[in-house]
Amino acid sequence: MAPSVPYKAASIDSADLAKLERRRAQTRTRQLRYIQKKRQYESDLKASVATLWIEVQRMHQHLHQLQNVEPHSSSARISSSSAAGIAASNILQTAQDFIHCFRSGFATTAAQPWLPCVAPDQEQIRFVQRSIHPDVRHGELRGQNSFLEQWRRYTTFFGSFALHPNSFRLLSRSAGHVVYQVQLTMSLGLVFATFRSVFPHLLQPQHSALFSRLLNQQIHVPATLLLQFDAQGRVCHYDPSLNFVEALRLLLSSYEDVAAVLQDARISPCGYIGRDVSRSRDARLAVSFVLSPIDP
After folding, report:
1. What are phi and psi of 6, to 5 degrees?
2. What is the pLDDT of residues 264-290, one digit of tens each?
3. Of 34, 36, 55, which Cα lies nearest the Cα of 280?
4. pTM over 0.70
């Protein structure tokens, strides 16, 4: 019976070697799949960037056309003293007042709707009633109350909120039509309420590392506001553009992590937040809040 022992040991060694080879083969296969997936992701990302760049160029061409719009008649010029005309200095002051008014957000204990209101006692509501068109268009939303609601959400969902204006620039000036561009930085504190309301997917176990990395951090979001004024000097069209990618990239190790944060975030392409806003299903393809505007 003694000779059977070495034979049994040899059989065990052979089985172990076979298992080891299978594990090595599986490891190589997984590594190849990972490399292929990473290359595909990079290829898709480059294609998305190229698509976004084309869109940015198209938008700049459209902006250039707006800047060169001529009024239909000289009597209708904004600089005229007619009743429909408004002074450029007044428009600039309104744009500056806009940022100053919402520099710390919009905190209120009153319930919607806030407007119309006969005698508003809050600074932001008074400003909106005076300087914002009742049917103001902003992104996919419209109206004064939905405008205020977005400011309320940013104030409530983040631990801290502050606007830091960088520049005010007149882009277009024609009959009954003035457009100002405001470059600013939006500073936001990421607290638990932020993840519950804006990034709920990061509360899942598979994203625990990202959650831990971002919790209680401060992000500084480059932002651009396009304010279009009507003949009465009221904001009638408001287009925000927030670059969350640049803000988050400073805190995270890669753009893949940034994509994971924004992929299922409750953020619309123009930067609106909440469960009821429409949002892009692919964060890499969202134009408005992924790319900063580029000066022509």
Report:
1. -60, -35
2. 999 988 889 988 876 654 444 343 344
3. 55
4. no
